[in-house]
Amino acid sequence: MPWDLKSDRPIYAQLIEQIELKICSGVYALGSKLPSVRELAQEASVNPNTMQRALAKLEESGLVYANRTEGRYVTEDVEMVRNVKNRLAEDLIEEFLQNMKRLGFSEDEIITVIKKISGGAMNE
Amino acid sequence: MPWDLKSDRPIYAQLIEQIELKICSGVYALGSKLPSVRELAQEASVNPNTMQRALAKLEESGLVYANRTEGRYVTEDVEMVRNVKNRLAEDLIEEFLQNMKRLGFSEDEIITVIKKISGGAMNE
DNA sequence: ATTATTGTATTAACCGGTTAATACAATAAT
DNA sequence: ATTATTGTATTAACCGGTTAATACAATAAT
């Protein structure tokens, strides 16, 4: 899974999202050790400072924690990860519905169209 | 409908989207005259240059056109607007599905959750 | 003991989007 | 004819995110 960063938004914010996603989806398991700042930065092709900034924010929110010279770990708090996952999902859904409605789609139409597309060639 | 611009992405890009939305949803009707650059800029609380930039881009794509000193108009091309609307909807859906899947939701789960939320207190 | 790797911090340069101020030609409105 | 409004253009300043280079203390690995 590539990091696919777009240039139309601050990179550090995108990094936060991507890491949250990886934690929620299990790519980075609960309690597991994260790659080092420098490794992650190289992986994502960004400056270590930028990655550091993203990680610091994630630390604020409690999703990861750092042991000074040992490395960084994903929280063991299952509840917290579940909450983050739910929050992310709700945000995605609300924003999506809002935009579709602005485009002039009704809720029924939205569901119909999603079924059609998600059944189709979407999967890659 | 306010312009609700966020600071985490280039404003001109957001302006383009918002104007596209307003055209697709009929707030700015086909062939109708748009407010002047200065008016629009004031409405959206941005610098006229920034609004001008967004409009210039929309002009490139053909969705609006300018008559030098007369003002700016929405295209009369129904087909074009329909296409834009479909493209915007598809983009929204694809991005949404992609993100939800990354979070670990299956297509069935997505539809279930959308039904639940869209039936609920979403509407404002 | 020495070395390599960890997170962390600092400073300066860079870069693109945004604002600000201003000007101009064309023309609709008066 | 004069005036106001239109889109358009230009230049400089500003600002926040990003990069770059570098350094440091702590400690795991050797």
Estimate the mean pLDDT confidence of chain A: 88
Continuous helix count of chain A: 5
What percentage of amino acids of chain A are in beta strands? 5-15%
CATH superfamily of the largest domain in chain A: Winged helix-like DNA-binding domain superfamily/Winged helix DNA-binding domain
N-to-C series of helices and strands of chain A: HEHHEEHH
CA distance, first residue to last residue of chain A: 13 Å
The rough form of chain A would be described as elongated
Strand arrangement, major sheet of chain A: 1-3-2
Helix content of chain A: 55-70%
Q: How many β-strand runs of chain A? A: 3
Biggest chain pair interface: A-B, 33 and 33 residues
Given the helix and strand composition of chain A, which structural class is it?
mainly alpha
Q: What is the makeup of the main sheet of chain A?
A: 3 strands, antiparallel
Report the top-level CATH class of the largest domain in chain A. Answer: Mainly Alpha
Whole-number total of structural domains of chain A = 2
CATH fold field value of the largest domain in chain A: Arc Repressor Mutant, subunit A
